Amino acid sequence: AQSVTQLGSHVSVSEGALVLLRCNYSSSVPPYLFWYVQYPNQGLQLLLKYTSAATLVKGINGFEAEFKKSETSFHLTKPSAHMSDAAEYFCAVSSSGSARQLTFGSGTQLTVLP
Amino acid sequence: SQTIHQWPATLVQPVGSPLSLECTVEGTSNPNLYWYRQAAGRGLQLLFYSIGIDQISSEVPQNLSASRPQDRQFILSSKKLLLSDSGFYLCALTGGYNTEAFFGQGTRLTVV
Fold it and tell me: How large is the average pLDDT for residues B15-44?
């Protein structure tokens, strides 16, 4: 079984401030981990993914995430928030060998304040 | 590259009416296909997934059904819509050498 917990359904940051969105997972096998972003009335777009290579993963739009096995975490960060980063962010976990591959967290709505 | 087409983009339907949402994919063969729903202010709920033609698994008992008549076509249906069926419906695929899912642009369904 696998699950994802995203701490904080709403996060607000000022423009230029650090963005930190938290994700903890559970998985009985080594996981694949993902962050997706969703803008209003659109589908989900992949930001970055961890697939057992480097533990620090860089994605699009300046985002990165670090896989920490000891903490079962995969937090998403960006050094300096931009107004265009305002969106909903989803963390997801996947294990291979299953048709139902992805389990999503409940999402975090990021607001960027001017 | 993989592409997912979903239509319509928005839909307003009366309670008790039927529903048919279509999802077609390009650029891949034998994909796993998924239907997700987002209710207002809530996360993604997996409704159905399919590993092949006519192979459908339901995750949540409900008023909806899914069919996969062709490898690259996935249809979400209902005989009689309920108010609680309102939401944002997303089609997704996994497959090939990629581990992540690709999503369509979604259909906003409002049942009135």
Answer: 90
Identify residues of B whose CB sits under 8 angstroms from chain A CBs.
Answer: 4, 6, 32, 34, 42-44, 46, 49-51, 57, 59, 88, 90, 92, 94, 99-106, 108
CB B62 within 8 A of CB B47: yes
Higher pLDDT, A37 or A53: A37
| Cβ burial, residue B29 (10 Å; 0-12/13-18/19+) | exposed
Average pLDDT of chain A to the nearest whole number = 91
Tens digit of each residue's pLDDT (9 = 90 or more) over A54-90:
899 999 999 999 999 999 999 999 999 999 999 999 9
Chain A: residue whose CA lies nearest to B52: A99
Residues from chain B that touch A102, judged by Cβ atoms under 8 A, are: 34, 92, 94, 101
Q: Exposed, middle or buried, A56 (CB in 10 Å: 0-12/13-18/19+)?
A: exposed
Nearest chain A residue to B91, by CA: A43
